[in-house]
Amino acid sequence: MATILDGKALAQKIKEELRDEIERLEEAVGRRPGLAVVLVGDDPASKIYVKNKERTCEELGIKSVGIRKPSSITQEELESIIDDLNGRDDIDGILVQLPIPEHLDSQKIINLISPLKDVDGFHPVNMGKVVLGLFDEGLMPCTPYGVIKIFEAYGIELQGKNAVMVGHSNIVGKPLANMMVNLNATVSVCHVYTRDLKSYTKEADILCVATGVPHLIKEDMVKEGAVVIDIGISRVNGKIVGDVDFEKVKGKVSAITPVPGGVGPMTIAMLMYNTVKAFKRREGVD
């Protein structure tokens, strides 16, 4: 029977540790870590994500600054907001909730955020540190880093393993593939243009999937005893499902993340982790 990799429980453990650490840091420094979340427009999913992030900040004792702007905001206005947040001493982390309206240049906005406050880990400087394996020096992208924390918590060894990353987005696929390379796995990256996807996934000791295609990965596409990390999330007939056909696949593999309750909760936990890390680096405390 497969081990169910419980990201929800692990995320709760990380948050509890952070809550204690934040109390200690506030006593030592005289202030709490501060996170600014910028939401542009009225995307319903984005509103839910932002609400969850702000609620978690409140739970842990992180100062949360919410900035809501209409979708009609100009590039210049949004850039001005980022400049202001970069200069604020009470703000340690800046997050612009993606996606933003199409008339705005999201990469330019990400590039404007100070790498020291880029708690999403999307700035090219932090992405470069992912490639170089400088996990401790940079702020790592939250979802991929959450996956690495799951591997660590469950003692899943990557060295010498065949790892396959299905999906090559800048947010998940590319950084996670690089992280696994730096943990000495042999990594193949597959995507929509990959010919014969099954020929890759069948050989994977570690299979990570982040495509947003419901139940893309079937039982006959996985190796017996593999570890499967399902990062995708979709809603089908009112039910939240992942990229992996969980019920069919779980009987064949050694470990698997559920959806929901797997990687998702780890993303917010690692955002809080990054905010505290950014705070400590800016204040020069351990």
From TrEMBL:
InterPro entries: Aminoacid_DH-like_N_sf (IPR046346), NAD(P)-bd_dom_sf (IPR036291), THF_DH/CycHdrlase (IPR000672), THF_DH/CycHdrlase_cat_dom (IPR020630), THF_DH/CycHdrlase_CS (IPR020867), THF_DH/CycHdrlase_NAD-bd_dom (IPR020631)
UniProt xrefs under Pfam families: THF_DHG_CYH, THF_DHG_CYH_C
The Tetrahydrofolate dehydrogenase/cyclohydrolase NAD(P)-binding domain, residue ranges: 141-282
Listed pathway(s): One-carbon metabolism; tetrahydrofolate interconversion
GO molecular function: methenyltetrahydrofolate cyclohydrolase activity; methylenetetrahydrofolate dehydrogenase (NADP+) activity
Alphabetical UniProt keywords: Amino-acid biosynthesis, Histidine biosynthesis, Hydrolase, Methionine biosynthesis, Multifunctional enzyme, NADP, One-carbon metabolism, Oxidoreductase, Purine biosynthesis
Binding site for NADP(+): 167-169, 233
SUPFAM superfamilies for this protein: Aminoacid dehydrogenase-like, N-terminal domain, NAD(P)-binding Rossmann-fold domains
Reaction(s) catalysed (UniProt annotation): (6R)-5,10-methylene-5,6,7,8-tetrahydrofolate + NADP(+) = (6R)-5,10-methenyltetrahydrofolate + NADPH; (6R)-5,10-methenyltetrahydrofolate + H2O = (6R)-10-formyltetrahydrofolate + H(+)
E.C. no: 1.5.1.5, 3.5.4.9
GO BP of this protein: L-histidine biosynthetic process; methionine biosynthetic process; purine nucleotide biosynthetic process; tetrahydrofolate interconversion
Superkingdom, taxonomy of origin: Bacteria
GO cellular component term, pick one: cytosol
The family this protein is said to belong to: Belongs to the tetrahydrofolate dehydrogenase/cyclohydrolase family.
Protein function: Catalyzes the oxidation of 5,10-methylenetetrahydrofolate to 5,10-methenyltetrahydrofolate and then the hydrolysis of 5,10-methenyltetrahydrofolate to 10-formyltetrahydrofolate.
Subunit field text: Homodimer.
Protein name: Bifunctional protein FolD
Species this chain originates from: Desulfurobacterium atlanticum
